[in-house]
Amino acid sequence: MTAPLLDIRELSVTASTASGPYDAVREVSLEIPRAGAVAMVGESGSGKSLTALAVAGLLGEKLTPTGSILFDGEELVGMPAARRREIAGRRIGFVFQEPMSSLHPILTVGQQIDEGLRAHYDMTTRQRADRVRELLATVGLSNTRDIVGDRIGQLSGGMRQRVMIAMAISCEPELIIADEPTTALDVTLQRQVIDLLASLRERLGLSLMLITHDLGVVAETCEQAVVMYGGQVVERGDTRTLLHEPAHDYTKALVLSIPTLGDTRRRLPTVASVAPWLSDTRQIPLADRPLTEMSQIAPDHWVRSTTAKDAA
Amino acid sequence: MTALLEVENLAKSFQISRKHRVDAVKGVSFRIEEGQTYGLVGESGSGKSTVARMVARLTEPTSGVVRFAGDDVTRLDRAQRQQYRQDVQIVFQDPFGALNPRMTVEELITEPLVVHRRGTASDRGSRARDLVERVGLPVSSLARKPVDFSGGQRQRIMIARALALQPRLIVADEPVSALDVSVQAQVLNLLKDLQEEFGLSYLFISHDLSVVEFISDQIGVMYLGELIEEGAKRDIYANPQQPYTRSLIEAIPTIEGRS
């Protein structure tokens, strides 16, 4: 078996706050295989975005990662900034939720896509201009009008998200980290972006780390999923098993709480009704919650033992 | 039977410049029966929020009629208008932007009562306690400010505030779109419980078809300012007539994955 492209081992992210340090991410371990797609699922504050930012090296000075993040065998935690930029800038691409605030309002579409090319490649202006058009074609933005000279404000939400994807793949990365890439989009545009990500994976052999709270998107995009709750991974495994035979109470609650088409339920189950013990833990500060063992219950299915049972 | 709310040929145009006019809403008609939920779906820019604002009288229609309990709400006298503003309340999408950060929860919930001169200060205080408990928050919340609450809790505060004047119709514009799925389920359940308890009617706006299906009795689909299809929810989902409605339904990602 070949080594995974991304191998995260016991990653913690410590936040320093006025009331002292606490771990916002606690001993997260996960792997993303080459050309594989892994979803990170969980509610706001569960630590999924922080985990992604730790991989990106974008944590900022108040957040400190410990543990290990191996990217293609190289340790990212504690790596010198210059070397890290080389990896995070070229070999890892990012797509964020809100294209309106992640893209520059004044620079043109062409200038923004060109930025990565200029920083990481030794190409002539002409070559880069050709590459920009090629990238726009790859993300499906060449068959309407020419938007190279457009500013972000002139584009629709779906087009903006495509521009961001074009930027993310501009330096031919091996891994794309997409943080809620479809959340701000209408359902029809969401469908287009999901299909685009899937086809890029196939055409370019990319690995994908997809952060989302939409389990439907997870099912259609990723073979594997990681469920986070309170800064910890509570369950991980292949997507089908996780969504159809969830083992952890939180995953069960998550799956049950979503209304689906043709739903005849009068009420939706919630975390509080499916797993009262779990909603009780909400009152406990993250740092004081016990960190129990993960156990393997199937070849590709890991679940964290429930604290309630251990305490009993 | 007269409907609680009847919207007839409602239209709104915005004059963008001397030459450009945007017809945001074109000839929209629907009705909401007492105690029922009418779900309005469509993508951004389809005009659904403009319809909501016109029903709540936050935006003046260019033409058309909104009748509430039989009365044309564009031709109400002062007293009737006051009554309408109590009977119809609105809950917005963004609980962070819609609550005044400097007010306590008690002030936020009792403000509508103060504006409409309802009850004594102590009546209002006890009403606030009832409401805050009814939406599932501890009474101790009353002294705190919005910043102390999560998105789901803020949406509960907004709902408590909307209930303060005992409205008959609540216009909910994307009330759960900004919430995590587990919190979304709690708020949807709460809205259903309140409807049963108080006989409320809802005009429920959302771009999420599964959410709209869960909460609604009747559904209308908007596209480019027009209501292109409407009916009982079972019919809309089982047998959509318009290609656009079909494409909306097919675009929803499902846990089953795509075959």
Outline the structure in words:
The complex is a heterodimer of chains A (312) and B (259). Helices cover 37% and strands 25% of the residues of chain A. Chain A is built from 13 helices and twelve strands. The two termini of chain A are 40 Å apart. Chain B has 259 residues and is α/β, with parallel strands linked by helices. Chain B has one domain: 3-Layer(aba) Sandwich (Rossmann fold). Helices cover 37% and strands 25% of the residues of chain B. Chain B has a six-stranded mixed beta sheet, with helices on both faces. A four-stranded antiparallel beta sheet of chain B has the order 2-1-4-5, with helices on one face. In chain B, helix 3 crosses helix 4, helix 3 packs parallel to helix 5 and helix 4 crosses helix 5. The longest helix of chain B is centred in the C-terminal third of the chain and has 18 residues. The interface between A and B is medium-sized, with 38 and 32 residues.
What is the topology?
The complex is a heterodimer of chains A (about 300) and B (about 260).
Chain A: E1 6-17, E2 20-32, E3 37-41, H1 48-56, E4 63-71, E5 74-75, H2 81-91, E6 92-95, H3 99-102, H4 109-120, H5 125-138, H6 157-169, E7 175-179, H7 187-204, E8 207-211, H8 215-221, E9 224-229, E10 232-238, H9 239-244, H10 249-256, H11 271-274, H12 276-280, E11 294-298, E12 301-304, H13 307-311
Helix pairs in contact in A: 4-5, 4-6, 5-6, 6-7
Chain B: E1 5-15, E2 21-32, E3 37-41, H1 48-55, E4 63-68, E5 71-72, H2 78-87, E6 88-91, H3 105-115, H4 121-134, H5 151-163, E7 169-173, H6 181-198, E8 201-206, H7 209-215, E9 218-223, E10 226-232, H8 233-238, H9 243-251
Parallel strand pairs in B: 3-8, 3-9, 6-7, 7-8
Antiparallel strand pairs in B: 1-2, 1-4, 4-5, 9-10
